[in-house]
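Writing this down once: the sequence line spells out the residues, with the fold written below as integer tokens. This is how one looks:
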Amino acid sequence: MIESFLQYYDRITNFSAPGYETDEILLFLNNAQDQFIKTRAFGENWQPPAFEDNQKRVADLQLLTFTSSIGVTYTGSSGLYYSTLTGTSYLIAARIKLTRTNPSVTNDWIEAKFIKSEEWNKFQQSSVNVTHHLQPVVWLQDDVLWIQCDSYVTAVHASGLNLTRIKNPAAIAATATENSNFPVHAHQEIVDIAVRQALQVQQDPRWQSQVAEQQIKSE
């Protein structure tokens, strides 16, 4: 991928732009890898199409995406649970196994709703706030997934978190012989993003044409 970067960068600039050292190229490539994952999972600027709605996006991230059942711990605070996660870039889906009244549910899997941490106060139970939201709400903060249930949930199963997530990719390194995080066809797309970033840093007007080209390839 380093060699591909050099070849593509030289071709785009006709050898007229300053070159980059290997460490600088690796920085561009790893930033591009992170951007590639985000845009494949959530679209440009966090806009649709979402991950599951586009088969190419699913294929591009299939080696990084996995589903597993995870244990949860009750905090002792009304309806609030947590689970510690490691090596997670993004969350795709979460289901919670719980028991509740109104409506009556016993050890059933309920799809959770993702929220931002600052929205928690809207769903937090208290002595003066009897909450009622059928979907538990979840948010990720500092490698901890928090789960807030409403006032009618009486219990969450100890292993009651079923999570689909995208794990952190291995860093692209000069000593690596291949990048196993992605299918081969995705490598050049990551290089394209990295070259575009390099052109932008140089304030080269050609980076704008690379933006348009990259958007076409990402459709």
Observations:
- The mean pLDDT is 85.
- The first helix runs from residue 2 to 13.
